[in-house]
């Protein structure tokens, strides 16, 4: 008789977090639980997300009931807006306070804001291991301090760990620039972490290739674990809701950050409407947060508000329970992303599964282009400019008309991009590697 293997998952962004990486963390722990592992998650408190970044409480119901979740307090002074608790220095000299705060944060680990969390996270990991011996730790970034806590447990108790980068630490995926030298404190930490890791995961091949060049000794332990769409979060096939008025309904779903080409998208939208490439009465609905935090970023909110007269409307964050309805209401979907060959997207997989035409408003060199390669209904831009956006939007009416004849192709493509299909090979491989301990 064998005993279940025990996975410890370390993640800052876990339900009810609304950050993009939360869906990957949720799917990961559910996949291990479904494979028969005991799973314990150590994450931040609910109040962290409710107070600072915004929360989607509907996600908590989707955590496998077999998963144990432990929450560790997380302090974020830089995001604290209650001035009654500010020190005299912060009130009198905010830049000086911010500089000293950053220096203090990076003493335990070189990551502003998150460095002080290392001690609490590592202590929680040791406590979990003491109560129920851990066979494998899987730490998800960002923040990358989760990697340090996994490394601490390995040093203390010999528990192997997997680093799930999602994106990158020393690589700016938008510019392609290296943000910290190999000899910096960040560089030394990353070299140590990668050297001792059992596996290292990335979301796409360009990011993995960059890291293989940096750390050739660990190349055979680096794997691409792509994102995907979650069957528990998206009901397919989607029923297309009737169009109540004239024109076409286009939609974008996702966090709008300063990296998203919102200005170019809106300018191109106006051009396409003005010259008739989009039929009169067409609308562009934006769903998601404006910025990284709970309070909408002012410049983004103003840009959207200014475009209301042109049929652009912002509906705010969309709970995961409402995502299927959001896609069902659209005739076509707009995928607007920041530029860079390393840039990937979790949302693109949902777009494919939704079976709608896609307007790809992003650098053609993005890794996302590979995901859309087999999609028969994509309007692509050659570069992200208003003129090119307008040209691509002008293809939408024909793509919408052709959509029914491609339904079977899109259904097959969507099936291949399920998130559980991306995770299954690594879950199985890790289980096989540890089977000897449980014989």
TrEMBL record:
Residues 20-232 form the Glycosyltransferase subfamily 4-like N-terminal domain. SUPFAM superfamilies: UDP-Glycosyltransferase/glycogen phosphorylase (SSF53756). One of its GO terms (molecular function) is glycosyltransferase activity. It comes from the Bacteria. Pfam families: Glyco_trans_1_4 (PF13692), Glyco_transf_4 (PF13439). The keyword Phosphoprotein does not apply. Signal peptide: none annotated. InterPro entries: Glyco_trans_4-like_N. Transmembrane segments: none annotated. Keywords: Glycosyltransferase, Transferase. The keyword Transferase applies. This is Glycosyltransferase subfamily 4-like N-terminal domain-containing protein.
């Amino acid at each position: 008789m064998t005993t279940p293997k025990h996975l410890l998952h370390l993640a800052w962004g876990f339900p009810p977090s609304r950050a993009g990486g939360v869906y990957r963390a949720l799917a990961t722990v559910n996949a291990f639980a479904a494979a028969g592992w005991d799973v314990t998650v150590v994450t931040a408190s609910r109040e962290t997300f409710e107070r600072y970044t915004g929360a989607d409480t509907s996600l908590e119901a989707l955590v496998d009931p077999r998963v144990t979740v432990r929450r560790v307090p997380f302090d974020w002074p830089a995001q604290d807006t209650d001035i009654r608790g500010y020190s005299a220095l912060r009130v009198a000299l905010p830049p000086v306070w911010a500089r000293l705060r950053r220096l203090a944060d990076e003493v335990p680990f070189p990551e502003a804001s998150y460095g002080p969390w290392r001690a609490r996270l590592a202590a929680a990991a040791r406590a979990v291991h003491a109560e129920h011996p851990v066979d494998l730790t899987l730490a998800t970034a960002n923040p990358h301090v989760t990697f340090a806590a996994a490394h601490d447990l390995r040093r203390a108790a010999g528990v192997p760990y997997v680093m799930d980068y999602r994106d990158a630490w020393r690589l700016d995926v938008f510019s392609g620039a290296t943000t910290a030298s190999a000899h910096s404190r960040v560089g030394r930490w990353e070299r140590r972490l990668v050297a001792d890791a059992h596996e290292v995961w990335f979301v796409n091949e360009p990011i993995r290739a960059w890291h293989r060049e940096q750390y050739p000794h660990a190349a055979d332990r680096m794997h691409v674990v792509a994102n995907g769409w979650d069957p528990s979060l998206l009901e397919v096939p989607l029923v297309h809701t009737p169009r109540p008025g004239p024109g076409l309904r286009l939609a974008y779903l996702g966090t709008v950050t300063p990296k998203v080409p919102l200005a170019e998208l809106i300018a191109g939208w106006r051009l396409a409407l003005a010259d008739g490439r989009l039929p009169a009465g067409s609308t562009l609905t934006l769903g998601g947060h404006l910025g990284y935090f709970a309070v909408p970023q002012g410049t983004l909110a103003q840009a959207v508000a200014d475009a209301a007269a042109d049929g652009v409307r912002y509906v705010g964050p969309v709970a995961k329970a409402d995502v299927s309805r959001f896609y069902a209401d659209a005739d076509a979907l707009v995928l607007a992303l920041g530029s860079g060959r390393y840039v990937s997207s979790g949302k693109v997989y949902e777009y494919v599964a939704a079976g709608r035409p896609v307007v790809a408003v992003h650098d053609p060199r993005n890794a996302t282009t590979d995901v859309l390669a087999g999609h028969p209904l994509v309007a692509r831009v050659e570069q992200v400019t208003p003129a090119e956006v307008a040209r691509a939007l002008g293809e939408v009416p024909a793509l919408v008309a052709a959509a029914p004849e491609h339904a079977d192709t899109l259904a097959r493509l969507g099936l291949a991009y399920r998130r559980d299909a991306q995770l299954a090979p690594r879950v199985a491989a890790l289980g096989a590697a540890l089977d000897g301990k449980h014989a």
